[in-house]
């Protein structure tokens, strides 16, 4: 198949309906013998209307197609071009279905000899890519894409992607390719034929970098050797600035020396350094220089796994490259559950090949395990069904194979610098005793540690576990068990599983209705039924997988029951019980405070640590430690960022009128500015209600409106937003974490509410120690999306008067110039916008 002729095709269409929408542009690139040999493209004039969204996305207008040929006039010519080729597209089902339907309308029956989807292939061959949309994927692989969403340019990029896939496939071990072929035979695409062709041309070559563990090939992990580089702060800092083409900042160098001094002299330092200063690089440079000089290990902790990954894979690599260093002894460590369990992988490999999602998961894992140097599951970002299938496999085993976690722990113990996250900090201090820690995003430490001391049980997860046992689908555990045993008990087993599943509904409805006694009753009933099921399994054949799964489910129920009996739980209620969460509270955090007292140097850094001129709230995070306090300010930080607070909006509690006012301000923006804006909400409920109200008005039909959902990662939404020149994006504050808004130096954001709850009269102490610092940080983080470079300008429209009227307003506004704050009505809004 590798030597066949491939027609790599892309269509731009007027919409997604195969029956009513039309093809606007057709592009095809022909690949043969490993190279591009020909290309063809044309517009079609089969429609007299192109929606604003399609026009914005593709840059195709009615004027561009009005003199083009009809599809009818070119159908036979195109058919003759591609009829003997393997059909290739990025999301092949869309392009092939659309083209086949168009051919059918002209009396041409087209079925390709074979078809390949570069989305599916990329997910298998490049399992660690963050997205499989064509533009970011090709950019990540170094493939040029001149104009995204134009047929010929997309087809060219897809053709180059196909050739990259062919090349990468040849690097996979032959043993692994054979295993992949046996799985891929059952996939809808013709990937198996491609694998067979690759296997035929690949000889078995011994690879010292791979080792075999239970018939799975994984990359051998080595502990880096220690080395000394005689680093100096100034030279390391200057090399980094030159490499990144950044400007020297006295404040950043000051921060480096404060951190370095605290590490070297065993000090406890609390540092507030403004957002955008470059804290990540500062703490890395200080830690590297100190560790290189003394040989002492430094533990760096940041707030989230996302930021931990960015610190390790981006900031560290930039620093090393800037000084021409290939390897330095820096490692990353997370909790054990973040690393792949090879026993679970073996269980997955034994599942049947009649489920597309399971087959894709198997193929991805086989390729990834040959590549990964950490075994960190975040590298392949398992979501939805894939994550559930992996967890299901994990639950089926009474033993585990934590090769990757143990190797990562071994590497961390021998590293100069260890990077972890707040959720794992306590465990990390237990596993790797260290006397020097640097805590980034320290304002989030307390909540992260408290979260790490909780275990959440969600309704959908428990229902999924039961569904994996039942008889609804062929690949379920009970069906497999009954294949090896007499089936007269099958109906009885199925009844028990159904009753346990019904209990889950009753339990979570009871949680939602504050009826804990009813929940306890049905938890006990469920445990009894699970015990009954388990007892009937003993002495039968091949019962171990089913037993392990049921036993793990029983453990979950027992944890919930134990928490209720100890009154060590929280319930996060929702309107619908299926979204209710039961949270088990683990042991006290006092153990962390005791551990903190044994650490010689502690450096806490954040964009917001000082609250009302004090750092006293730090005592709640790291015990009664005495911190040396530093505040690094920048009076001109938000010099070109302006803030508008409307004085004519309805009260936030009057939701309908408040949303109507918000929508009115958005329409004023669109009338005044021909660009895009982000509207940030504090919850999805109001986001969705505002979106529906916007669509009902009919005022937004001429502009793309994007909407964040819990299932869409912010980075994927950002890709769409950055590709459009004019649009609105409705999102939550989570959208601002680690994102970079591109394509404009003039950025506009709406913020519907300050990101914290209204403080309760009897809980002001907690408000100032926890809620306020976190809200100030989120607020500055949002501003940081507006102001990324010296040339950036930005406008923030805030629908919350508290920022001007409450005594904590200075915590938010201390970096703002007074002349940049406007408190007016909507009639002044247009004048304010025109100044941008």
From TrEMBL:
One of its GO terms (molecular function) is ATP binding. InterPro entries: ATP-dep_Helicase_C, DnaQ, Helic_SF1/SF2_ATP-bd_DinG/Rad3, P-loop_NTPase, Ribonucl_H, RNaseH-like_sf, RNaseH_sf. Pfam families: Helicase_C_2, RNase_T. It comes from the Bacteria. GO terms for cellular component: cytosol. Residues 238-488 form the Helicase ATP-binding domain. Keywords: ATP-binding, Exonuclease, Hydrolase, Nuclease, Nucleotide-binding. Signal peptide: none annotated. This is 3'-5' exonuclease DinG. It comes from Phocicoccus pinnipedialis.
């Amino acid at each position: 198949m590798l030597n066949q002729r491939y027609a790599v095709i892309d269509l731009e269409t007027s919409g997604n309906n195969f029956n009513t929408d039309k093809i606007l542009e057709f592009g095809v690139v022909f690949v043969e013998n490993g190279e591009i040999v020909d290309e063809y493209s044309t517009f079609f004039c089969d429609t007299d209307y192109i929606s604003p969204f399609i026009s914005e996305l593709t840059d195709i207008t009615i004027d561009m197609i009005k003199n083009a040929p009809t599809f009818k006039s070119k159908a036979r010519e195109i058919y003759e071009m591609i009829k003997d080729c393997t059909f290739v597209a990025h999301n092949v089902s869309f392009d092939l279905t659309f083209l086949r339907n168009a051919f059918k309308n002209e009396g041409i029956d087209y079925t390709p000899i074979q078809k390949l989807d570069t989305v599916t292939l990329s997910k298998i061959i490049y399992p660690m890519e963050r997205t499989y949309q064509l533009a970011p994927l090709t950019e990540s692989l170094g493939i040029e894409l001149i104009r995204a969403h134009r047929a010929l340019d997309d087809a060219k990029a897809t053709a180059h992607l196909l050739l990259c896939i062919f090349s990468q496939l040849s690097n996979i071990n032959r043993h692994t390719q054979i295993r992949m072929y046996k799985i891929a035979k059952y996939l809808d695409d013709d990937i198996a034929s491609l694998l067979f062709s690759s296997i035929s041309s690949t000889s078995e070559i011994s690879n010292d970098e791979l080792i075999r563990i239970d018939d799975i090939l994984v990359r051998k992990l080595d502990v880096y050797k220690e080395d000394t580089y005689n680093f100096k702060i100034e030279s390391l800092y200057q090399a980094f600035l030159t490499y990144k083409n950044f400007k020297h900042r006295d404040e950043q160098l000051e921060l480096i020396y404060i951190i370095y001094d605290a590490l070297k002299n065993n000090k406890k330092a609390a540092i507030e350094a403004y957002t955008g200063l470059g804290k990540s690089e500062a703490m890395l440079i200080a830690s590297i220089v100190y560790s290189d000089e003394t040989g002492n290990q430094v533990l760096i902790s940041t707030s989230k796994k996302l930021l931990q990954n960015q610190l390790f894979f981006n900031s560290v690599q930039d620093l090393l490259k800037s000084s021409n260093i290939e390897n330095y002894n820096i490692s990353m460590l997370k909790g054990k559950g973040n690393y792949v369990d090879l026993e679970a992988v073996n269980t997955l490999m034994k599942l049947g090949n009649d489920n597309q999602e399971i087959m894709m998961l198997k193929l991805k894992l086989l390729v990834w395990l040959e590549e990964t140097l950490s075994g960190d599951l975040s590298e392949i970002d398992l979501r939805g069904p894939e994550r559930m299938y992996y967890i299901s496999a994990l639950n089926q085993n009474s033993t585990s194979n934590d090769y990757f976690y143990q190797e990562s722990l071994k590497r961390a113990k021998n590293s100069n610098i260890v990077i972890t996250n707040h959720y794992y900090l306590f465990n990390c201090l237990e596993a790797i005793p260290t006397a020097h820690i640097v805590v980034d995003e320290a304002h989030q430490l307390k909540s992260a540690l408290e979260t790490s001391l909780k275990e959440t049980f969600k309704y959908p997860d428990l229902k999924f576990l039961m569904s994996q046992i039942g008889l609804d689908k062929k690949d379920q555990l009970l069906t497999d068990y009954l294949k090896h045993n007499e089936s007269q008990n099958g109906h009885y087993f199925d009844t028990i599983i159904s009753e346990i599943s019904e209990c889950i509904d009753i339990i979570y409805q009871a949680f939602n209705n504050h009826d804990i006694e009813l929940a306890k009753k049905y938890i006990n009933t469920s445990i009894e039924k699970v015990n009954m099921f388990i007892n009937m399994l003993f002495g039968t054949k091949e019962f171990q997988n089913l037993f392990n799964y049921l036993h793990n489910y029983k453990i979950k129920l027992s944890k919930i029951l134990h928490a209720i009996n100890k009154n060590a739980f929280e319930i996060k209620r929702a309107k619908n019980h299926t979204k209710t969460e039961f949270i088990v509270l683990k042991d006290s955090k006092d153990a962390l405070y005791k551990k903190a007292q044994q650490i010689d140097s502690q450096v806490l850094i954040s964009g917001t640590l000082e609250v009302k001129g004090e750092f006293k709230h730090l005592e709640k995070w790291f015990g009664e430690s005495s911190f040396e306090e530093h505040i690094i300010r920048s009076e001109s930080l938000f010099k070109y960022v302006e803030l508008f607070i409307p004085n004519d909006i309805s009260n936030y509690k009057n939701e309908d009128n408040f949303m109507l006012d918000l929508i009115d301000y958005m329409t004023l923006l669109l009338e005044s500015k021909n660009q895009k804006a982000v509207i940030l909400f504090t919850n999805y409920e109001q986001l969705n209600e505002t979106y529906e109200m916007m669509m009902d008005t009919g005022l937004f039909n001429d502009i793309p409106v994007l909407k964040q959902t819990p299932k869409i990662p912010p980075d994927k939404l950002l890709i769409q937003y950055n590709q459009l020149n004019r649009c609105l994006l409705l999102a939550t504050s989570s959208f601002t974490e680690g994102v970079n808004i591109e394509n404009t130096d003039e950025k506009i954001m709406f913020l519907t509410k300050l990101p914290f709850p209204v403080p309760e009269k009897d809980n002001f102490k907690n408000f100032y120690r926890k809620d306020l610092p976190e809200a100030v940080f989120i607020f500055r983080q949002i501003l940081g999306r507006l102001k990324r470079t010296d040339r950036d300008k930005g406008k923030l429209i805030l629908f919350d008067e508290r920022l001007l009227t409450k005594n904590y307003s200075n915590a938010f506004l201390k970096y703002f110039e007074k002349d940049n704050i406007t408190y007016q009505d909507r009639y002044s809004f247009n004048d304010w916008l025109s100044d941008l």
